[in-house]
Amino acid sequence: MGSQIVSLVVNDQRREFIARPGTSLLSALRESLGLMAAKRGCGQGTCGTCTVLVDDRPVMSCLVAVETIEGASVRTLEGVARGGELDEVQSAFVDGFATQCGFCTAGMIMSAEALLERDPDPSREDVVEAISGNVCRCTGYASIVAAILDAARRRRDAASSGGDAPAVPAGSEAADGAGVR
Asked: Which InterPro entries does the record cross-reference, listed alphabetically (predicted)?
């Protein structure tokens, strides 16, 4: 069986490319579309570095044959920032020092985006469960969980004020997750 044209909506843009059957979504994103945020880690779906959203659900893109999601909507880290501005999750990761080497960061952020889109007020346990498929070997997870809880608060504050919520300085009570359920 030869190559075929695959059509996806990637970061809100219709994209078509040629792929061989069995080409992973990760390979298509990186090699055909030049989107490099999702990383190849284990290649077996256990580390989460390749996490992207397909139809708003987090998936390990190394495990998805791209032809099986023809026509789907795919969002990568490159599609999260709007108008050159970091969104709340990205900002909270930066402000809360939730990255070290950065290898897991794109996958962590995409898992967090999916969580906050379905649950704007998650508990600490909800966050831990949402990122349970994402491995970080550097941070110990505490700063990542706190950043996601902070991002949730920022989004709720922005929604209630009708605009952007002010950033909470890293190390403050809200940024470190204290007092957040």
From this structure: 2Fe-2S-bd, 2Fe-2S-bd_dom_sf, 2Fe-2S_ferredoxin-like_sf, 2Fe-2S_ferredoxin-type, 2Fe2S_fd_BS, Beta-grasp_dom_sf, Diverse_Oxidoreductases
Question: What is the domain range of residue 68?
Answer: 4-79
Rounded to the nearest 10 degrees, the angle between the axes of helix 105-118 and helix 88-95 is: 130
Q: Which residues pair with 82 in a beta bridge?
A: 85
Q: Which of 38, 58, 79 is the endpoint of a domain?
A: 79
Indicate the residue among 79, 99, 118 that finishes a domain: 79
By CB atoms closer than 10 A (0-12, 13-18, 19+), residue 173 is exposed
Number of other CB atoms surrounding residue 132 within 10 Å: 10
Which residue(s) pair with 6 in the sheet?
Answer: 17
Q: Which residue has the tokens 């985006």?
A: 113
Coil, helix or strand for 82? strand
Dihedral angle computed from the Cα positions of residues 76, 53, 174 and 94, in that order, rounded to the nearest 10 degrees: -20
Between CA 68 and CA 98 the distance in angstroms is 34
**pLDDT tens figures, 76-88:** 999 999 899 999 9
Q: What is the pLDDT of residues 22-31, one digit of tens each?
A: 999 999 999 9
Which pTM was predicted? Answer: 0.88
CA 113 to chain centre: 5
